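Q: Given only this backbone (337 positions), what sequence would you predict?
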């Protein structure tokens, strides 16, 4: 017969094993720009993340761009990457991440009633049509970026040769206004929040918009690897439920002032930089569209990726439906009804 002390030891060991199994899952999500990307906003509303610290822990990790995110996904250092529609298929095609899956929406461009990226020329510029850009110098934030793909599509649509008809130079968004004003380039890209600069709008005009160029764009998506999703499904659904709760708080107009204050705290930029547009449906004076259920527009994403192939950035297109798993977000959404 086992002694009482031995029985107590066995119970303690079993309890220890149980505790180990109940260790919260570590979830990491990438971001490039605070507030523009969702990851850093989530922990600002911890009180709404009811499963945080129980079934999962969460960390928002800053990256300078897409390439290091893809590397981190490949080595399992990153759980969720916020990838542009332009980088998602490249991760599959070039990095051979065939198990990468679209799991949620970050934001969309060109949705009626919401903001769409703009392309600016100076008020006094002789450029009146896209055709007038022939022989001109055009700025892009990065070759192959989402807004760059839209810009190139518009040029091609209007018969311009991308190699000989125009000169395209790379420039960071914060530097583009000065380059335009100093006549170093003839057209710049306008993305939020830079495009709402009062000085830019006073001295420059919009030649065309991204929605005019390519229609609706599933600009940024959340992506995760299928193996991780399958191995940790329950915790991932818990996380998505909490994410949706926080997301809806920020998108609720009655919480606008609170959302603006959080943006101020995160970026140290004045409230005036955010108050008139952040998370607001106000056309070109408002924000991009963020689906309240975090569901990406897969039809738009397919069209966007097909366009990349047509412009020569991809060897072939992919069937987006085969690389999407919306069951996590759908199950999480059901819990909130």
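A: Predicted residues:
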């Amino acid at each position: 017969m086992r002694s009482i002390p031995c029985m107590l030891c066995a119970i303690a060991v079993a309890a220890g094993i149980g505790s180990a199994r109940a260790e919260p899952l570590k979830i990491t999500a990438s971001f490039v720009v605070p507030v523009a990307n969702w990851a850093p906003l989530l922990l600002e509303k911890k009180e709404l993340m009811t499963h945080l610290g129980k079934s999962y822990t969460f960390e928002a990790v800053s990256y300078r761009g897409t390439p290091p995110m893809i590397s981190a996904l490949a080595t399992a250092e990153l759980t969720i990457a916020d990838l542009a529609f332009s980088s998602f298929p490249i991760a599959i095609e070039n990095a051979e991440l065939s198990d990468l899956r679209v799991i949620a929406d970050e934001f969309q461009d060109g949705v009626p009633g919401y903001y769409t990226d703009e392309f600016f020329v100076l008020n006094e510029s002789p450029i009146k049509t896209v055709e007038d850009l022939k022989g001109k110098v055009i700025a892009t934030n990065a070759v192959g970026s989402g807004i760059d793909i839209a810009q190139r599509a518009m040029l091609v649509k209007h018969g311009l040769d991308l190699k000989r008809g125009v000169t395209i130079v790379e420039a960071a968004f914060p530097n583009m206004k000065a380059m335009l004003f100093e006549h170093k380039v003839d057209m710049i890209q306008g993305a939020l929040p830079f495009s709402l600069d009062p000085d830019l709008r006073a001295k420059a005009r919009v030649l065309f918009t991204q929605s005019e160029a390519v229609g609706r764009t599933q600009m940024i998506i959340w992506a995760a690897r299928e193996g991780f999703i399958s191995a940790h499904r329950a915790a991932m659904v818990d996380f998505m439920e909490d994410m949706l709760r926080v997301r809806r708080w920020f998108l609720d107009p009655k919480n606008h002032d609170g959302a603006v204050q959080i943006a101020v705290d995160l970026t140290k930029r004045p409230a005036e930089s955010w108050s008139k547009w952040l998370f607001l449906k106000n056309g070109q004076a408002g924000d991009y569209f963020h689906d309240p259920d975090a569901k990406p527009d897969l039809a738009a994403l397919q069209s966007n990726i097909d366009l990349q192939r047509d412009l020569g950035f991809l060897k072939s297109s992919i069937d987006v439906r085969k690389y999407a798993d919306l069951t996590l977000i759908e199950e999480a959404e059901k819990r909130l009804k």
